[in-house]
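Morning, I've got a small favour to ask if you have a moment. The fold is given in discrete form, as structure tokens running alongside the sequence. I'd be grateful if you could look everything over and explain what you see. No rush at all, and the record is pasted right below.
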Amino acid sequence: MDALSPSPGGGRLAIPARFNGPPGSGNGGWSAGAFAAAAGARVGGPAVEVTLRVPPPLDTELTVVDGGVLDGETLVASLTGRDAPIPAVAPIDLATAERASRGYPGFSHHPFPTCYVCGPQRPDGLRIFSGPLPDGRTAAPWTVGAEVDLPVLWAALDCPGGWTALQNGRTYVLGRIAVAATALPEPGSTCVVVGEAVEFTGRKATVISSVYSAGGGLLASGGATWIATT
């Protein structure tokens, strides 16, 4: 599909510092979701794919124009529609997700412990701690906060997929993510987030992730490419 265009009034935005991933840059999922929303993406609308070209800067005015996000003349991200369907990760029940989360490897070793989504040092973050399932997938409960919008939903799909790649011992960062969102979760509810690694090729890991409501309804799925830093 063609590149997206900014929605009315949505051509400029900044990533607040609290939505960080690695120190000094935006969480990839939240940033990509904010870029997509500024370009017209919506819950219930077509899937959107965002490719991060450089680490998203924090507290910096960015411009969304002609399918791109710019920091001055630097291309931060590019955005397109996505025709190919995003597969959902098979659901599991909440009790199984809670048991998996207790084995979250980030409790003992985390490359970015202050990450907004999965950092154990972020009491104000989403605190989605994805632990391994016997079949290689990851799972975690997510207690949804009062502030939940499209960027937060994209963020919730980000790290749980990434931890399926991180299980191989390498450090990865998000390179590209596409999301199809059917509905936002209810504030105060508990969701289940599951991730699955699809393929490893060189420095790239292809992963998928899904968010399910407590009742088992699929809320959103994401497909992402993660890039190894080492």
